[in-house]
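Continuing the batch. This is chain 6 of the set; chains 1 through 5 are on the previous pages. Same settings as before, nothing changed between runs. Recording input and output for traceability.
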Amino acid sequence: MSAQIVVQPARRGALLRQEAIDGFVFITPWLLGFVLWTAGPMLFSLVLVFMNWSILSAPRFAGLANFQRLAHDRLFVVSLANTGYYTLITVPLNLVTNLIVALGLNLKLRGINIFRTVYYMPTIVPQV
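Output for chain 6:
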């Protein structure tokens, strides 16, 4: 004979409610950090896009004038090209290079311990 545990509906509701409260308590630090350090600055930046603001004066609403001025700025095209170069060439090239080095450090070759030591030395020495 096996014993069955029967949970009363009222007790089950209290357990679910307590579980939900515990979940909110545990997520609160992350949520506060997200609002303070990610969502807040993003929303503030979105508002600043439509403002004309010198740090020493009060911000004034500029509407789409900033975008119009941006479209006629020749440095904007240069900055877009630099960003594209960095994003499409430099980042993948660095990732592939670092992956190859990591795979090389994992090989079982003669003298690999010396290479690992020399490679990691600049990271370890400043901490000592």
